[in-house]
Amino acid sequence: MSPSRSSTWLAPMILCVLLASTANGEPHLSASYYDTTCPSAQHIVQSVMASKVAADDQAIAPAIIRLFFHDCFINGCDGSVLLDKTPSIDSEKDAEPNDSLRGFDVIDEIKSQLEHSCPATVSCADILTLASRDAVALLGGPTWNVQLGRKDSRGADKDAAESDLPSPHANLTDLIGRFAEHGLDAKDMVALSGAHTVGTVRCLHYKDRVDGGESGADIDPAFAKIRREMCQAGGDDAMAPFDEQTPMRFDNAYYKDLVARRGLLTSDQELYGCDGPLDNLVEKYSKDGEAFARDFAKAMVKMGNIPPPPGMPVEVRLKCSMVNTY
């Protein structure tokens, strides 16, 4: 079916979805949401993700997880981070904290296959939520039932992306506050931070810590020296793994690193070292990978349920990078 023909006959249907979602507020989410309308949805997402991780490189998996986080923390899990800049949309992609996001092409490929199988049915927000779950599982982490039925926003908020995402330099008080704004408690925060057990980060975001400028005393000197030398050799864009032992395996090594004062970012190490309840939780996760996996899965479901603001215009986009035209 050609795109022009598809958009012509689907426009009235999509407009009804847009108006209904705006009028009725946040959608009701359900794990069986697409069982009738698009029963192949989860299989398609999982198939593309598995193919990409196997054929391209494993690093696409943590990139997708990061996309999901950055979407949900700005006006809820609404796919707004996927929108390109237009005269009427100030893209969140152009915000400084998002300048190294990637994986948009993977979401676009999944969307293209779903549009072929189930036109105008599966939202980009749901695709990103499912893809992040599958990214975790493909790296050896837990899996969980994803609640579905999100809609896509018809706008983006670059200013919020500039100011509201947790900073890699944030202290514990600020981190707890940022998560609390979205209904996520301190336990959720510690569990979700475990996503940093995979992936890499640029020297730009950790150089102050390893140079001694941010919590410099709370870092293993040998670890700081290695990372400092990497920055000196490669500059601000030098990439370092969050977890140097198993950088592409979703395990509990991140928490072992925190206990050893080898957290790469200031915001990582802030979770451990205050001799309080969070220290106990970090130590628990460092010793019990299954407990971490269970709590991470629960926290991902909870974060995935963050709704867009009441009254936000939403729809099921035909293309994830742009809003529908009517």
From TrEMBL:
Q: What class of enzyme is it?
A: oxidoreductase
Q: What SUPFAM superfamilies does the entry give? A: Heme-dependent peroxidases
Described by its record, this protein's role is as follows: Removal of H(2)O(2), oxidation of toxic reductants, biosynthesis and degradation of lignin, suberization, auxin catabolism, response to environmental stresses such as wounding, pathogen attack and oxidative stress. These functions might be dependent on each isozyme/isoform in each plant tissue.
List the PROSITE patterns: PEROXIDASE_1, PEROXIDASE_2, PEROXIDASE_4
Task: Tell me the leader sequence span.
Answer: 1-25
Q: Which cysteines are disulphide-bonded? A: 38-118, 72-77, 124-320, 203-231
Catalytic reactions on record:
2 a phenolic donor + H2O2 = 2 a phenolic radical donor + 2 H2O
Protein name listed in UniProt: Peroxidase
Looking at the keywords, is Secreted present? Answer: yes
Q: Where does heme b bind?
A: 196
Q: Which residues bind Ca(2+) 1?
A: 71, 76, 78, 80, 92
Q: Which organism is it from?
A: Urochloa decumbens
Question: Which residues participate in substrate binding?
Answer: 166
Subcellular localization is given as: Secreted
Query: Hey, which family's this protein in?
Result: Belongs to the peroxidase family. Ascorbate peroxidase subfamily.
Q: Respond yes or no to whether keyword Lipoprotein is given for this record.
A: no
Where's the active site on this chain? 70
